[in-house]
Amino acid sequence: MRVLTVVGARPQFIKAAPVSKALRRQHEEFLLHTGQHYDDAMSELFFRQLGIPDPDVNLGVGSGPHGAQTGAMLAGIEQAISDQKPDWILVYGDTNSTLAGALAAVKCQVPVAHVEAGLRSYDRRMPEEINRVVADHIADLLLCPTESAVSNLAREGITTGVRMVGDVMYDAYLQNAALARGTTDVMARLDLTPGGYQLLTVHRADNVDQVANLVSILQGVADSGATVIFPVHPRTRASLLGARDIPKNVRLVDPIGYLEMLVVEEHAEAIVTDSGGVQKEAYFARRPCITVRESTEWTETVDLGWNVLVGREPAAIAEAMRSFRPAGPRPAVFGDGHAAERIVDELTAFARA
After folding, report:
1. Which terminus in the chain has less CB density within 10 A, N or C?
2. Please, which residues bridge with residue 162 across strands?
3. Helices in the chain by DSSP H: which ranges?
4. Superfamily of domain 179-323
5. Which fold has domain 2-167+335-352?
6. How do residues 36-62 score in pLDDT, each as one tens digit?
């Protein structure tokens, strides 16, 4: 069986790593990188740290308007399908790379499998929500990370090809957390003390493309009085140029690798983010998560009390940073760390059916 895997952004590299390892033990994989994330800190570093094979092709699409970016990806992926003649197209998550991969598969009449199927924030203002909904409605095999994802699909009338496999990001976390602790010097390099800082990550379009929204988030962070470390996404750095002075309690650093991020997350007093992946990693690491969004696709983390949605309201952000400290049980709602093997089993079984 030959699988064409489409990735393009930092979260997808993390998700693809355990699946590629499991997949290549039994089958042939052709790895296509759209180039949606393209600088070393957001792309090549992750491939090196996660042990992902070099892409067989990199489209080098880069950033740009949604239509132009997705269109360029669609053309490149169609050409790869024509050249490689895969049995499956495998896509991850909710980026423009996901949408382009799924659409190209359907147009070329190749079955498509969607990892992280069934997630819903029910906020159609988010481009990611549109991408995941469209991918789900055209996928042949819907590989769900949680039971709530399965339920979401059923409410939309999607029951055929739906499989509950667990979350591949939890696989990646279990495979890499101990390695990260033993190999990275990020705490010393950034002069961080365990429990002595909070971690901030912000990159969503609605938070950073409008400078006023980013300023509002930074005001809340400033008002909290916490010591904050802020690895700055390239998209966010451009918007920071138009913001007011950076709060004195916030220290900007360059983006950090996956292994370093796991260690910084694990030792943070709390995590403030708009990233879906970081929300989950906070849950895995038992850290309080304060999400600067009004909705989330990872509703389990909120329902179980480990994540709070505060939007961009400065007072709500500051209060949560000062006082939101969950405790108690943390059920294993994201699986047992063997989602990758189940995904490969489902691809194999579905292809033979």
Report:
1. C
2. 142
3. 10-24, 44-50, 66-84, 96-107, 127-138, 147-155, 168-183, 186-189, 205-208, 211-224, 234-240, 258-267, 276-284, 299-303, 314-323, 339-352
4. Glycogen Phosphorylase B; (3.40.50.2000)
5. Rossmann fold (3.40.50)
6. 765 555 567 777 888 888 899 999 887
Query: Catalytic site residue 233?
Result: no
Instruction: Establish how many alpha carbons lie within 13 A of residue 268's alpha carbon, considering only the half-sphere containing its beta carbon.
Output: 31
Q: Using one digit for the tens of pLDDT, what is the confidence trace for 11-40?
A: 899 999 999 999 999 999 999 999 876 555
The strand pair at 250-253 and 198-201 is best described as unpaired
Q: Is 89 helix (H, G, I), strand (E, B) or coil?
A: strand
Beta bridge partners of residue 201, listed in sequence order: 273
The residues spanned by each domain of the chain are: 2-167+335-352, 179-323
- Which residue among 33, 37, 114, 203 is the active-site one? 203
The pTM is what?
A: 0.93
